[in-house]
Amino acid sequence: MTNNDLPVAARGRKRDPERDVAILEATIDLLAEVGYDGLSTAKVADRAQAGKGTLYRRWPTKTDLVLDAVAHMKAQQIDLEALPDTGSLRGDLLAMFRPQDGAKVDRILRAMAGVVSMISQVPGLADTGDYSIFEPWITANAVLMERAQARGDIPPTADIALAAQIIPSMAAYRALILRVAIDRDLLERLVEQVVLPALGESSVNPSPSQDGMGQDG
User: Fold this and answer.
1) 82 shares its domain with 187
2) Residue ending a domain, choose from 68, 88, 118
3) Which residues constitute the domain of residue 16?
4) Which tens digit of pLDDT belongs to each residue from 75-124?
5) pLDDT at residue 18, as a whole number
6) CA–CA separation, 32 vs 115, rounded Å?
7) How far is CA 211 from the centre of its chain?
8) From residue 83, how far is each of 78, 155, 166, 181 by CA, in Å?
9) H-helix or E-strand spanning residue 195
10) Cβ–Cβ < 8 Å for 152, 58
């Protein structure tokens, strides 16, 4: 039997989702370590122990690879099926954006800084880049706010689409411009003094036991 007699599926290697994840994770690591300018398909292939041809077939350009890697990073951070449910919007927002381990946060911030460099170099990419980075955060916020609206905690006229962007926008400014993360104190002030009033819910400061945030971990 010749190669031409083989079924199509037998002639080439099937796409391996686990291999894709390894490649995207390697891309994020390198983006955080060397930035967009220092990143190359060859370096990613070497880090992920994958063939350069494999990468070029799936991601024709470095920009395509980075955009997929960032979307992967964000998708891994937020599971819309497992959002916090503390009984209050304040508690939900604080629980969802609770700081993770320092190394992971630092990796995310440095990778995002690399994305900013990419956006500045590739004409017409700003909208696509911003969407892939922050859309999951905005969507999760909107889900929590819609849940609060269904409970009657915020009025039907609340502008959820706008309010859902407040925390991600501040996170983006601090990460990409100031190069620092949002801390717990600032997050609480944002939620209580900006987000909740914008939605028509009064700024309140319940005890930790009321919003489910009394213990770390």
Assistant:
1) yes
2) 68
3) 1-68
4) 777 788 889 999 999 999 998 866 555 567 678 778 877 887 787 777 66
5) 80
6) 9
7) 24
8) 8, 22, 18, 21
9) none
10) no
Residue 217 lies in a domain: no
pLDDT for the residue 108? 77
Mark out the alpha helices in 39-159 (DSSP H runs). 41-48, 52-58, 62-77, 89-96, 102-121, 126-151
Residue 22: Cβ within 10 Å count: 16
Judge residue 161's burial from the number of C-beta atoms within 10 Å of its C-beta, 0-12 exposed, 13-18 middle, 19 or more buried: exposed
* CA atoms of 147 and 130, how far apart (whole Å): 25
Segments of the chain assigned E as strands: none
pLDDT band at 37 (very low <50, low <70, confident <90, very high): very high
- Closest of 77, 62, 52 to residue 27, by C-alpha: 62
Query: CA 62, CA 102: separation in Å to the nearest integer?
Result: 28
Q: Are residues 127 and 167 in the same domain?
A: yes
Band of pLDDT at residue 128, cut at 50, 70 and 90: low
